[in-house]
Amino acid sequence: MESKTARLTVLIDPRKKQIFEELCAAQDLTPSQVVRQLIREYIIKHAASRDLPPWLVKAAHRKVPTK
């Protein structure tokens, strides 16, 4: 399973951050949920022939719910 102990710090323009947070809130999602889903999708898209753990592939197929 995924470990939730690692932290990723991202520097982003405050205006983009505000819009992102508003869009996430409008979909009843946290920014962290959306970022985790984007990272999973990115890994799978760019992994090429790299073997990925089954839990990662399975998690990526669960889309972030949208309203």
Can you walk through the features of this model?
Helices cover 55% and strands 0% of the residues. Helix 2 (31-46) crosses helix 3. It is mainly alpha-helical and 67 residues long. It has one domain. It has helices at 14-26, 31-46, 54-61. It has 3 helices and no strands. The protein starts with 13 loop residues before the first helix and ends in a 6-residue tail after the last helix.
Compute the average pLDDT. 87
> How many independent structural domains?
1
- DSSP helical segment count: 3
Helix content: 55-70%
Structural class: mainly alpha
> What is the chain-wise order of helices and strands?
HHH
Which parts are unreliable, with pLDDT below 50 for 5 consecutive residues or more? none
Q: Kindly report how far apart the N and C termini lie.
A: 27 Å
Q: How large is the share of residues in beta strands?
A: under 5%
Number of strands: 0
Radius of gyration: 14 Å
The major sheet is characterized as: none
What form results from the Cα inertia axes? elongated
Present the secondary structure layout.
Layout lengths: L13 H13 L4 H16 L7 H8 L6
